[in-house]
């Protein structure tokens, strides 16, 4: 106790000493790790370990608690909540660069990766320190199961938390060694800021990571310790029987294209491998437990396949019982091959297998995804990409994004530094292409892309007058380089099995013979005539279950997603209710014809948002509001989510997804130009000229006729009663202005549109003025234009967050999002209302019960289960585990949304904007609204028509169509209402 008091007193007395610490004037958020290292390239790395007193924290805005037992360990540990920060003072005796190691235990949270930001003496040292990521530990829950058709079903992934020791490292994998941090001599403050998930810390220390010894030195130690080479030992571990993994995506998968995989079947699903493209992100790992029969030296072989990265290789770091045995296995290369290979570690590298020491008993072998030699090339490529983007912006500041190809902009005189840099970056890309070719031994399309871009840059530098004509190609090549970096950083590898054996053992053949391949193809072809690939999982026959009729559920998604849904049904819904379900994978375009023909399902999931009202007008779906417990179910969603699914107080579907717009902005560009993030549309109007002076712009979406024609938005609508506005993205922008002014899209009961109201005219004029007077772009690729900085601030669906995190890693930490600009009310508050529920045409949005359902009570139980927070959350996690962060599920369930792996800051902003979302009704004839709003917009903006007259003319056309549809379905029309009054 006295020691603790004394320590705190010393810390308080030492605070003034911080003024004496060495500091650097460079703003941390403006530099990357490579720049940071250059700042301290001649700095010492003191060989000392300094423990941070984790329970003696000096500041805490996070919830903190000292605990004394966790994960089988006893001691003093610090439990830290998800939000807020915790800081410690630590005395550093000698200035220098240090690694930071942490012992942590992944306590229960939202089941996503843990993320923290590190600050040293109140500042972020470099961008990468904002994204320190710590994995959870996952394992299979139980054994692989078999459905009643003989197909294997993967076990559910469950958390298996255990203590882990990690060094703070680059989560992108670009740096193979742990991060180095500079600390001045004296007292320093170390602070961890919560970004995602709670955390339990068992230790935190400044130290130096020890590099593993070379194999030659390890071999010498074998001789000195008189370790014996074993004989006659052979241990095989199937890849799908992994003990632990870093990610719930790393579950067993099936490969039925090779006769030699174990286990094998030509037609039925056998979960016989693990990895593939799911195991490709740096930092991911899989471990296996191996029972070794005796102490001694063994070889390790892996039956593996890397058939996805043709122009490069994949790399893995090997750990045995938590330690890298020697330097040569820090980045094991697996070359491209479309067939399985028996990869004996060491055989390719030195001509004979490496020998590894194992003790008798259970040992752990772990393989971690690393970039290996490619890492340095990707760092160079990303730095080059950043330079190309910067040069592009400087060129565009003079030429605009759409320059006059015949004008001489005199670029060599006005931006000579950019012209010379074009040549420099061309040389860098040439050198990069050569280094990649040397590293991989291949001249694939990846190398060709780099060479082509290098050639273009050098030619632009040599002939600056041609730059305006080639600006679009230059921008496209920048995007291609970004995609190349993303693709090259993927390190896929598929494992059939691992072998730990004595060197004298003969290893199995990894590839099938010609005869085996022929027999396999014949069997697979024959089986295709008897296998129904639309059915997923168990298929229940009523006769097998006492005549009880199973529910038939249709789902529109990929097979992997459908399999996940089926597994969830079997292990929770059927297990808890006893209700049997047959799940079928179908195209939802067949739903209405099948229903009208009496061949439809009981329940349909993933139904486009316009379909429930279309079906309701034909009495083809159930009114869910009459079922017991509906009010409790309704409370799961924002009220706006039910608006497009409701007609005349009857609710015909439950929402699965709901999206809404937010505003994205480039923090680096706005800071560079001294521009503030706009809060109102008046602020936007003042911002646009400042952007356009630099030949940048503000992005506000309108409908792209090409996208609308490619989609199914208007196809078949004439036979429908209502039409989703999803194909008309311009409606999102118009409705934002309309709703913020207090307007409505339709009159009561959807009897007519409200587009002829004064508020609608005012909203329409404000919307079109932005394009007519302020010249906002009408068609643009949001992700790429945001990425290059052409459009550094734009309105888009919040799901663009996920796209940017995957497609634009080079601007990570240089962008953010916030609420949509609003309209200031008379009381001074800002109305930020936006339309919600307009989901991309390819996305399902709702779940329905067909009127023809044989057991409607069971169907209602199914919908209650499907839309529950637990089910939606699990499905969202399954979806992200299948397809990655870009596929984060935009669930309509409020509780489930709050538990998806968003950061604390992101969730706060999303829920703020969600509270302003207003639903868009679906009404008979409503498909005309989007179509004619687009027509009115183009007539005003492109043909300079008068806004009021144009909108009123089209409002009359829309109302005529609504009247026709209401008559068709026996609903009161506006004329009939007026006559009755």
List the helices and strands and how they pair.
Blueprint: H1 2-14, H2 33-39, E1 50-51, E2 59-60, E3 64-70, E4 73-80, E5 85-92, E6 96-105, E7 114-120, E8 132-134, E9 138-141, E10 145-146, E11 152-153, E12 156-159, E13 164-167, E14 181-183, E15 186-196, E16 199-207, H3 215-224, E17 234-238, E18 244-245, E19 252-254, E20 271-276, E21 285-292, E22 296-305, E23 314-320, E24 332-334, E25 341-344, H4 347-350, E26 356-358, E27 361-370, H5 374-399, H6 411-414, H7 416-440, H8 445-462, H9 467-489, E28 493-501, H10 514-527, E29 535-536, E30 551-555, H11 559-577, E31 581-585, H12 591-596, E32 603-607, H13 611-616, H14 630-634, H15 639-642, E33 646-647, E34 650-651, E35 654-655, E36 661-666, H16 667-673, H17 681-693, E37 698-699, H18 705-710, H19 730-740, H20 758-772, H21 782-788, E38 793-797, H22 800-807, E39 815-818, E40 823-824, E41 830-831, E42 834-836, E43 846-849, H23 856-866, H24 869-883, H25 894-899, H26 904-914, E44 917-919, H27 927-943, H28 947-968, H29 974-980
Parallel strand pairs: 30-31, 30-32, 37-38, 42-44
Antiparallel strand pairs: 1-16, 2-5, 3-4, 4-16, 5-15, 6-13, 6-14, 6-16, 7-8, 7-15, 9-12, 10-11, 17-28, 18-21, 19-20, 20-28, 21-27, 22-25, 22-26, 22-28, 23-24, 23-27, 29-31, 32-43, 33-34, 35-43, 36-38, 36-39, 40-41
Helix pairs in contact: 5-7, 5-9, 7-8, 8-9, 11-24, 19-20, 20-27, 20-28, 27-28
């Amino acid at each position: 106790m006295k020691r603790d008091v004394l320590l705190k007193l010393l810390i308080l007395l030492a605070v003034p000493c911080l003024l004496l610490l060495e500091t650097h004037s460079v703003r941390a958020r403006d530099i990357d790790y490579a720049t940071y290292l250059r700042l301290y390239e001649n700095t010492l790395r003191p060989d000392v370990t300094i423990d941070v007193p984790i329970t003696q924290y000096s500041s805490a805005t996070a919830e903190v608690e000292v605990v004394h037992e966790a994960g089988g360990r006893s001691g003093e540990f610090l439990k830290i909540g998800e939000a807020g920060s915790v800081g410690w003072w630590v005395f550093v005796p000698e200035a220098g660069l240090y690694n930071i190691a942490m012992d942590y235990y992944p306590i229960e949270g939202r089941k996503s990766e843990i993320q923290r930001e590190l600050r040293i003496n109140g500042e972020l040292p470099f961008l990468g320190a904002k994204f320190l990521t710590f994995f959870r530990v996952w394992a299979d829950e139980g054994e692989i199961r078999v459905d009643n058709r003989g197909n294997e079903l993967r076990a559910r992934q469950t958390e298996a938390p255990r203590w882990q020791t990690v060094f703070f490292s680059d989560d992108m994998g670009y740096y193979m060694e742990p991060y180095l941090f500079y600390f001045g001599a004296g007292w320093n403050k170390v602070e961890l800021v919560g970004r995602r998930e709670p955390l339990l810390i068992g230790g935190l220390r400044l130290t130096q990571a020890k590099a593993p010894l070379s194999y030659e030195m390890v071999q010498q130690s074998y001789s000195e310790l008189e370790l014996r080479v074993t004989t006659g030992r052979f241990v095989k571990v199937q890849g799908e029987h992994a003990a632990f993994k870093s990610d719930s995506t790393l579950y067993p998968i099936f490969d039925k294209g090779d006769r030699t995989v174990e286990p094998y079947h030509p037609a039925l699903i056998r979960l016989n491998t693990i990895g593939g493209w799911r195991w490709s992100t740096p930092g991911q790992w899989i471990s296996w437990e191996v029972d070794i029969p005796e102490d001694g030296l063994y070889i390790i072989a892996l039956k593996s396949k890397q058939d996805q990265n043709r122009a490069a290789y994949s790399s893995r770091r090997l750990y045995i019982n938590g330690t890298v045995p020697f330097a040569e296995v820090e980045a094991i290369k697996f070359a491209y091959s479309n067939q399985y290979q028996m990869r004996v570690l060491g055989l390719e590298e030195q001509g004979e297998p490496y020998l590894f020491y194992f003790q008798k008993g259970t040992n752990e072998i772990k393989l971690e995804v690393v970039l290996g030699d490619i890492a340095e090339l990707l760092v160079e490529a990303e730095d080059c990409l950043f330079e190309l983007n910067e040069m592009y912006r400087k060129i565009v500041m003079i030429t605009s994004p759409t320059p006059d190809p015949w004008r001489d902009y005199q670029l060599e005189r006005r931006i000579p530094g950019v012209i010379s840099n074009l040549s420099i970056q061309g040389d860098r890309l040439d050198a990069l292409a050569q280094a990649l070719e040397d590293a991989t031994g291949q001249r694939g399309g990846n190398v060709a892309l780099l060479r082509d871009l290098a050639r273009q840059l050098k030619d632009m530098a040599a002939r600056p007058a041609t730059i305006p004509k080639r600006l679009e190609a230059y921008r496209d090549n920048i995007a291609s380089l970004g995609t190349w970096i993303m693709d090259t950083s993927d390190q896929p590898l598929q494992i059939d099995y691992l072998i730990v054996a004595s060197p004298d053992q003969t290893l199995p053949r990894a590839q099938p013979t010609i005869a085996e391949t022929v027999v396999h193809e014949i069997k697979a072809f024959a089986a295709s005539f008897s296998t129904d690939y639309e059915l997923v999982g168990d298929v229940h026959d009523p006769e097998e279950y006492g005549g009880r009729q199973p529910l038939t559920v249709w789902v529109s998604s990929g097979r992997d997603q459908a399999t996940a849904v089926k597994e969830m049904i079997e292990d929770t819904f059927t297990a808890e209710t006893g209700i049997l379900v047959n799940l079928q994978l179908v195209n939802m375009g067949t739903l209405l014809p099948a229903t009208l023909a009496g061949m439809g399902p009981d329940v349909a999931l993933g139904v486009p948002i316009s379909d429930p009202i279309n079906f309701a007008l034909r009495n083809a779906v159930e009114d869910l509001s009459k079922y017991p417990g509906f009010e409790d179910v309704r409370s799961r969603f924002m009220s706006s989510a039910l608006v497009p699914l409701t007609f005349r107080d009857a609710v015909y579907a439950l929402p699965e997804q709901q999206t809404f717009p937010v505003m994205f902005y480039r923090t680096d560009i706005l800071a560079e130009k001294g521009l503030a993030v706009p809060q109102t549309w008046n602020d936007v109007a003042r911002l646009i000229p400042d952007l356009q002076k630099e030949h940048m712009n503000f992005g506000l979406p309108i409908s792209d006729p090409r996208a609308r024609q490619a989609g199914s938005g208007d196809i078949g609508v004439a036979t429908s009663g209502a039409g989703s506005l999803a194909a008309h993205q311009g409606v999102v922008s118009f409705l934002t202005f309309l709703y913020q002014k207090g307007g409505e899209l339709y009159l009561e009961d959807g009897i007519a549109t409200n587009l002829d109201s004064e508020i609608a005219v005012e909203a329409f004029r404000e919307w079109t003025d932005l394009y007519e007077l302020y010249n906002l772009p009408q068609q643009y690729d949001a992700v790429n234009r945001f990425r290059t900085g052409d459009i550094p601030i734009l309105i888009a669906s919040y799901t663009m967050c996920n796209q940017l995190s995957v497609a634009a890693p080079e601007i990570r930490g240089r962008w953010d999002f916030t609420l949509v600009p609003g309209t200031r009310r008379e009381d001074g508050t800002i109305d930020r209302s936006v339309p919600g529920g307009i989901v991309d045409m390819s996305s399902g949005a709702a779940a329905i019960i067909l009127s023809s359902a044989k057991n409607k009570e069971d169907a209602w139980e199914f919908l209650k289960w499907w839309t529950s927070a637990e089910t939606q959350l699990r499905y969202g996690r399954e979806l992200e585990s299948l397809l990655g962060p870009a596929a984060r599920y935009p669930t309509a369930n409020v509780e489930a949304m709050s538990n998806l792996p968003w950061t604390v800051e992101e969730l706060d902003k999303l829920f703020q904007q969600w509270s302003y979302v207003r639903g868009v009704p679906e009404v008979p004839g409503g498909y005309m609204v989007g179509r004619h709003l687009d027509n009115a917009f183009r007539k005003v903006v492109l043909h300079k028509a008068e806004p009021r007259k144009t909108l009123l003319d089209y409002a009359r056309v829309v109302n005529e169509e609504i009247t026709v549809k209401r008559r068709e379905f026996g609903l009161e029309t506006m004329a009939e209402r007026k006559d009755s009054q």
